[in-house]
Amino acid sequence: xxRLTVLATSVxxxxxxxxxxxxxxxxxxxxxxxxxxxxxxxxxxxxxxxGDDFAGRAPAGEGEAKTVALVEQxxxxxxxxxxxxxxxxxxxxxPLVRMLPYQVSDMQxxxxxxxxxxxRNDMMAWSPRxxxxxxxxxxxxVFAGYGIVxxxxxxNDYEGLDVAGKTVVVLVNDPxxxxxxxxxxxxxxxxxxxxxxxxxxxxxxxxxxxxxxxHETGAAGYGWGVIAGGSPQRFDLARDNNNMDRSExxxxxxxASADRLFARLGEDYKSxxxxxxxxxxxxxxxxxxxxxxxxxxxxxxxxxxxxxxxEGAKYPDQHVIYMAHxxxxxxxxxxxxxxxxxxxxxxxxxxxxxMALAEFYxxxxxxxxxxxxxxxxxxxxxxxxxxxxxxxxxxxxxKAVAGINMDVMNVYGPMRDMVVxxxxxxxxxxxxxxxVEQQGRYLAAEPNxxxxxxxxxxxxxxxxxxxxxxxxxxxxxxxxxxxxxxxEKRAEYIRDAxxxxxxxxxxxxxxxxxxxxxxxxxxxxxxxxxxxxxPNWYEGNEFRAIRDASQSQRQ
Length: 555
Known about the structure:
By secondary structure, the protein is α/β, with parallel strands linked by helices. It has two domains: 42-79 and 311-554, Zn peptidases (Aminopeptidase, 3-Layer(aba) Sandwich); 98-298, Glucose Oxidase, domain 1 (3-Layer(bba) Sandwich). The chain is 27% helix and 23% strand. It has 15 helices and 20 strands. The chain has helices at 42-49, 62-78, 175-179, 196-206, 217-220, 224-228, 255-263, 269-276, 344-362, 384-391, 428-438, 459-463, 482-496, 512-529, 544-549, and strands at residues 81-82, 91-104, 108-109, 123-126, 133-143, 149-150, 155-156, 167-171, 210-214, 234-237, 249-253, 284-310, 315-325, 330-331, 340-341, 369-376, 400-405, 417-420, 442-445, 469-474. Helix 11 links the parallel strand 18 and strand 19. The longest helix has 19 residues, at 344-362.
């Protein structure tokens, strides 16, 4: 193992106010990457974790035991302290419940001019509550615009609205997506208020009996097949209240289904979406009620987060977090040819990255602040392991300096650009920028911020509790082959391998790009772990108020 040596070159600075990306002539000259080697053991960790014998690393599956054994053996070998000092265990048990809605009725309406919505074709629905059966009968439907309550943006779609016993119908994404105006929410870049998960959470807080999100491919970032295809099986954390604080019914309806609802008012989906963008929008009674029933089978299982740390020499409660999810999709029993979802890129690559960082940190002098390595479970089931950790952290989250998440690393070679997912969120980008500059690279925004990728990986569960989190990775501008090569590789992965058995380890992968990025993750974390700074979210970010509210706990 040896530290990476890079040459410092000048680069265009792209900070909290994104500037245009450099043109080819403006981009920094590339540096030699032949000697890039942050941790020479990375490849072996990646290959091992994504091997067929790890059976797709499903929670509570046979691959889980192998993953746990490997991580624990390596952490112990390197002298990484265990999560549970009393037992010497690196495991934090995460209680999960597996739910299968095995019988879902069509959605019936109490008006003869409105035909029933059929399951999977016109709508998808389930109950988040852990109980055998749920039934809504004649629940009045109300169009609640975007379903958003965002004080920092002066937005409240529920103002003056009583939704007890009612089902709210809401739009996906947020007003900024539709306006394209950077002064409205975050413009085209989705805020958390645009995520469908938020819509369900807010509807429950408002006391709605049901909530239906209208699907639109562009605004959602994926087609109806993603929602209606595949198994309806769902996972959640096994909470003491059995999720009885959630709405009884959650679900989606198609854009065409929304047109049918709105037609009774002489409107359509497009016109109602335009109405919802107006500052004086008020919720609209849709003049009909719906009935729906869901029968659910459920069982319980445990799966561990794997947590180790290096204790800070001066401030042990203050800590920097490195995070990745170790789980993937397991095995498809009906595929006799190749049913193993190896998850090499997603996310053996990130798990191996955390291991490589832990190994390197362990070889260095102890930092002033603690460094915590968190490998979470059940990301593929809804970011559940990270959600559990965020509610049950090893050290107080108010004293978490910052965190770095690794999910689907760059295996296609050294890149000139470093893509910041959710760019413009936090001061961590300022730390990253100077080290990117040292590599002769440039920061770039994600190409499709409107799909809300920042809210779709594990770092988000810590972010929404106030911890500044960085999610960045090598982009598409390959040092030797250019942008088109990188774009082709990414598109090929999404098309052929993402969440498919084809996501397998390839010995021909050029892992110099991973080594580039590991060096950056280390440098940012190292500076924070050896300093006294407390990075924050940028002004206007939806998580800044939470971070500011915990400031007294850091003094």
